[in-house]
Structure prediction request, 217 residues.
Amino acid sequence: MIMPGKVFSIVTENQPIEGCTVSRELLSNEKDAVIVFAMAAGTDISAETYRQPKLLWVLEGELTIYSSAIGEVNVQAGKACWTPKDVPVGTRTDKGAIYLEIAPEGTEVMSTNIKPGEIFTLASLVPYQADAIINRDIFQTPTMKFVVMSFDAGTGLSEHAAPGSAMVFALEGEATITYEGVDHVIHAGEEMLFAKNGKHAVKANTQFKMALLITLE
Prediction:
């Protein structure tokens, strides 16, 4: 179980088991879900059809997404890809893969004009700017929002609270997150969960990029 206010690593805590596929729910509400999949080398998840697109984000290893709509798309660690809706989509891996499946219910618009099957890096969606914080929405539904943010060194967000549970994914650099009055240093490749109404603040120790997933209750 993930405890709010603790820095952790999705990759470290969700290593594949030989010959198996393991899935674990990270965040959910009544309509949306965020699931981590750990697929061992040589495993496959059969193609299935869903009514909404899904964002697949590979954290470690290498994943092949396949569908009649996009063909075969090879996604390396650190890259992400939207899947098409209303057609069968499957995944397989020759070498093993750990990835997130972010499934926002009913989303029709993907920001930045990213098309299904197009591979991209989340951190590349926002630049740095001197003395500034920059954010870009990846998607937003009535119940979930996914944002990428960049912080110049020394910038930050004052203490606030989210209307639902939220998770920070550190993409580049280092920051200090103060959660309920306690400081936690977070580095690229680490994550942190905030409980609903958990008070938190962010201060970039270096140039810092993060993705933020919020459930809107």
